[in-house]
Input
Amino acid sequence: MQNHCLAKSIHQVGWGMFCTMLKYKAEMSGKIYQEVDRFFPSSKTCHVCLNQVGSLPLDVRFWTCENCFCKHDRDVNAAINLRDEGLRILTCQSPQVGKPAHGESGSSGTGDKACRPDISRSNRGRKKSTTALSAGQEAYTVRVGESLS
Output
């Protein structure tokens, strides 16, 4: 489209409709829909040690953590971080702000290892509501306002 503002508006409406339909489908099938803050740095945070890279251009598809030297595929790493952040929000555990979890070897787990630091910008983005996750339910995590491409 020639009108960039119009194209952006159409994209935002489409994304909003997708999120609305996904939320409806999740509720109808007994699942939980949880949104994560759109500014959550999922692709540039190491899911192993929680170290956050300062700058990561979009053309960089693979990167190595400076702290634990783990090699990451940007998209896979972001998916793991979004899953873990969504589960952390749902379990309502208090965040450990400011410090990476040194010495952890797993990417996810239960108990303290599943509690991720809240590394998002807390005053920005949309309002979030939390719901307790009961046994046997699945959680879907979607980043608000992200494009699919």
Remarks:
- The chain has one domain: 4-143.
- The mean pLDDT is 74.
- The two ends are 16 Å apart (CA to CA).
